[in-house]
Amino acid sequence: MRSSYLFTSESVSEGHPDKVCDRISDEIVDLFFREGAREGGDPWTIRAACETLATTNKVAIAGETRGPSSVTKQRIEQVARTAAYGHFGRTPQSDGGFSRERTDLVDALRRAA
Length: 113
What we know:
Blueprint: H1 17-38, E1 47-55, E2 58-66, H2 73-88, E3 104-111
Parallel strand pairs: 2-3
Antiparallel strand pairs: 1-2
């Protein structure tokens, strides 16, 4: 057994793309469970695995889902844009920053069997 080790960790502040991406992913997963409960579905049958990455004016969402049919690509896009708004939506477009309205959202979520 080693007598010493180096401990490292990452910490990012509010508004950092990592935190925003985590928030988008969390909101999408929550959407599946919220809609499943609203429709009276069994929460144990819902599957939602979602990862998000962002760069200037592009957000990519990928993963696998199984859940309520009421969760459409349009609903996912709406949730993603709303989740990002508090962080990215305030960046002035004149600064070349991220814009909720101009952002290209790539939805690569697929339905799991």
